[in-house]
Write a structure and sequence with these properties.
alpha/beta, 19 helices
Length: about 500
């Protein structure tokens, strides 16, 4: 009987960019993923669609599944022969009860590995400009669990902690912030010692409250603190305003939804994260090559008769070359055929095949492509357009009106997608999404299909192209359109929108 294996994987503090390379590598091969509520949404979206999901939802005293049962789940799934990833917020061995989960596996001789995660006591202060060690202020760091069982006193030697004169980081202690501060005061700490509560660090919900031990609890109550949050006590907290860097990024504090297909979202997400945004990648569509490519194969048989091949998306270009290879043809077949692309992204997909584009319209949309190409026609040209099954019919119509013979050949279709892990409607209704980025009308429709009946009027939509904006307008979103249909222009648009909102 085949025996599986378990990986305890630390997901980090929230920012998907802090998920380790090894963690990602292991997660991509997972057959079963056992995850909890402290795993950041950005990491959750990296779970492969093929993996079976088991939610165990731990947070504070509200445990969806008791720890003993979680241990049993890992054991039973591994016994069935699966590759099991136990995905945990932060690091598995820092108050993550990873050791408890390994005990049962060890007893039953189940193989396992541990993939450490970036831990919040270090990362969250860093994102708030607080170095947990600094030789001018302290020479030690102490990480303490602030969690305690209901009705029981802390089993913490506060006097010893005060005598150590190091930076103190309390995890899971926000509910008892007053008791922790009082314990430190009773232990002899200077009432004026700088202290901070750091909420939802490394995410768009990041918030920092800096005060001193004597007044921190009152200030936190006044400003309101949401979990998860950590407490930092020590002279280094006084450096927060001086060293703050994350909040200086132009998109800090914004959670941005990227709806592009999974294979197209990485560059967009990367640019948004570089500017400080928390990015939620939830593709609203995916593209699938048509099973029946007979029309394309017929066109390939007479490819030498075409004067132009027109590509309206990077996906269209990629599928064209995939099918060309299947049909035992290569780029030599395109000798003498001029190439037109709707925009730079599509042109890049062609360039990767060693082909330079002859025509790109000044404005990257179907109507402009039609107008630009029509100017090149003298009449009688044969034009091949391999593209989505539901494309802009105006393109072929305009070219035919200018005397061209057009073969408008569908090669792929667009299918709507929905996340099994994240409730998009709840995200919208709670107002946690500051802006959604749409790169096509189909991504707008796919998003609306996933959300269902809802009020979209409060959603800011940053759109590429007139058709995309028109689709968002139909759902009464607050729409904006980039000057050009390029990702760099779209990112600039998002920055402009945020700056405008902050001025209002």
């Amino acid at each position: 009987m085949k025996v599986g294996k378990v990986w305890l994987v630390g997901a980090g503090p929230g920012d998907a960019g802090l998920f380790t390379l090894k963690g990602m590598e292991v997660l991509q091969k997972a057959e079963v993923v056992v995850y909890d509520s402290l795993v950041g949404q950005g990491v959750l979206t990296k779970i492969p669609e093929s993996a079976r999901l088991i939610y165990v939802g731990k947070r504070a005293d509200k445990h969806t599944v008791p720890q003993e049962q979680i241990n049993e789940i890992l054991l039973e799934e591994a016994k069935k022969g699966y590759r099991v990833v136990r995905l945990k917020g932060g690091d598995p061995f820092l108050f993550g009860r990873g050791g408890e989960e390994l005990e049962l596996l060890t007893e039953n001789q189940i193989p396992y590995e541990v993939v450490p995660g970036v831990t919040s006591p270090l990362a969250v202060p860093a994102y708030n400009g607080i170095p947990v060690t600094h030789r001018d202020f302290c020479s030690s760091l102490h990480i303490i669990t602030g969690h305690r069982r209901a009705g029981q006193k802390y089993d913490i030697d506060f006097e010893a902690l005060v005598r150590a004169k190091g930076t103190l980081v309390f995890l899971m202690g926000v509910a008892a912030l007053g008791d922790i501060c009082q314990g430190l005061l009773d232990g002899g700490i200077d009432p004026a010692m700088p202290a901070a509560v750091l909420q939802k660090g490394t995410t768009a919900g990041q918030k920092r409250i800096v005060s001193d031990v004597q007044n921190l609890a009152g200030e936190a109550a006044r400003q309101g603190v949401k979990t998860p949050a950590i407490i930092v006590v020590g002279k280094v907290c006084a450096l927060a305003d001086t060293f703050a860097w994350y909040e200086m990024l132009p998109l800090e504090g914004w959670k941005i939804l990227v709806t592009r297909p999974k294979n197209r979202s990485s560059r967009t997400s990367e640019l948004l994260r570089e500017r400080g945004a928390e990015v939620l990648e939830l593709p609203s569509i995916k593209t699938e090559a048509l099973e029946d490519q007979s029309r394309l194969y017929e066109a390939l048989d007479r490819i030498h008769t075409y004067q132009w091949a027109v590509f309206t998306s990077p996906t269209g270009a990629e599928i064209f070359f995939q099918e060309m290879k299947k049909y035992k043809k290569d780029v030599r077949s395109l000798f003498g055929v001029k190439l037109a692309a709707i925009g730079q992204g599509t042109a890049k997909a062609l360039e990767e095949k060693g082909l330079l584009v002859d025509l790109i319209p000044e404005i990257y949309d179907g109507d402009s492509l039609a107008a630009s190409l029509a100017k090149e026609l003298k009449g009688g040209e044969r034009i091949l357009i391999p593209r989505a099954s539901r494309g802009n019919e105006n393109l072929a119509r305009v070219l035919r009106e200018h005397g061209a013979f057009v073969d408008d050949v569908p090669t792929y279709e667009t299918v709507y997608e929905r996340s099994a892990l994240i409730d998009l409607k709840e995200e919208l209704q709670s107002g946690s999404i500051d802006c959604a980025v749409f790169t096509s009308a189909s991504t707008v429709r796919g998003f609306a299909e996933a959300v269902g009946e809802a009020d979209y009027s409060g959603l800011i939509a940053a759109c590429i192209g007139k058709q995309t904006k028109a689709a968002a307008d139909q759902f009464h979103m607050e729409t904006y359109m980039s000057e050009k249909a390029a990702i760099s222009d779209l990112i600039a648009l998002v920055e402009e929108i945020k700056a405008q909102k902050e001025r209002e």
